[in-house]
Write a structure and sequence with these properties.
Layout: H1 2-12, H2 23-50, H3 56-66, H4 78-99, H5 107-120, H6 123-150, H7 158-166, H8 171-196, H9 204-242
Function: The fumarate reductase enzyme complex is required for fumarate respiration. This subunit anchors the complex in the membrane and binds a diheme cytochrome b.
Binding site for heme b: 45, 95, 145, 184
Keywords: Cell membrane, Electron transport, Heme, Iron, Membrane, Metal-binding, Transmembrane, Transmembrane helix, Transport, Tricarboxylic acid cycle
Length: 243
């Protein structure tokens, strides 16, 4: 009987009691939660990598802090970094599969949305389009980066990180990854906020102003940190060339 209910719900999107299925709403919430976790992690990660602008000692101090040196008597435990990478990887994969529900399923759906975007010329619709494209790219770029860090999580320091940029020939990869990551995360965080945080106002105009202010604030934070991280990447490249 339970299998029959699952079949009915999957085809008709209603339960056997003719009630609307709550699963899509649950999946949307999980997608938003995993997306918010990843967006916050990206902000922290940009601060982490940008510490190289203050010198290699500053970066080493941040690495030690992230490995729990402030808890374990001044000596960090690299295994904590491995654990964090595993958790973020699980969240990353979960978010990717949840987001795929809203991707165009075939070429016809792709063209319908593309035409809709061109006719509407609406900012948020265009932002979703950019999020879709960057999300597709991040599935491969972000996945490759997480795998790389996972297998090197116990040996993170300024010199191994710098050599990865130059000797590993990953400078261009990291620069592209940063741009795509900032675009996707900033749009995603903005969409999560306006979707789940009430923005009621006496008039539609005032509500639109609130949305605009949130958009400006979110993009300002990500762009500022993104620019700093972009400059830091060139510092990593310069350091790698001196090794």
């Amino acid at each position: 009987m339970q299998n029959d209910e699952v079949v009915i719900e999957s085809y008709l999107k209603v339960t056997s009691e003719r009630k609307k299925s709550k699963n899509p709403a649950r999946w949307d919430m999980l997608q938003s939660i995993t997306g918010a976790i990843l967006a916050i992690f990206i902000l922290l990660h940009m601060c982490f990598t940008s510490s190289i602008l203050l010198g290699t000692e500053a970066f080493e101090a941040v690495v030690g802090f992230s490995e729990g040196s402030f808890i374990f008597g001044g000596k960090g435990i690299p295994l904590l970094t491995t654990l964090v990478v595993i958790v973020i990887s699980v969240v990353f994969v979960a978010h990717a599969f949840l987001a795929m529900r809203k991707f165009p399923a075939n070429y016809q759906q792709f063209m319908i949305f593309k035409t809709h975007k061109s006719l509407m010329k609406h900012c948020d619709t265009t932002l979703w389009w950019i999020q879709f494209l960057t999300g597709f790219a991040l599935f491969f770029l972000g996945g490759a980066h997480l795998i790389t860090i996972l297998f090197n999580s116990t040996s993170i320091n300024a010199f191994t990180s710098a050599s990865r940029f130059v000797e590993g020939n990953l400078a261009e990869f990291y620069l592209v990854l940063l741009v795509v990551m900032v675009l996707h995360a900033s749009i995603g965080m903005y969409r999560v906020i306006i979707k789940w945080i009430p923005l009621e106002a006496p008039t539609t105009a005032q509500s639109n102003v609130k949305r605009k202010n949130i958009k400006i604030a979110v993009f300002a934070v990500f762009i500022v940190l993104g620019v700093i991280a972009f400059i830091a990447d060139f510092t990593w490249i310069a350091l790698g060339k001196t090794l």
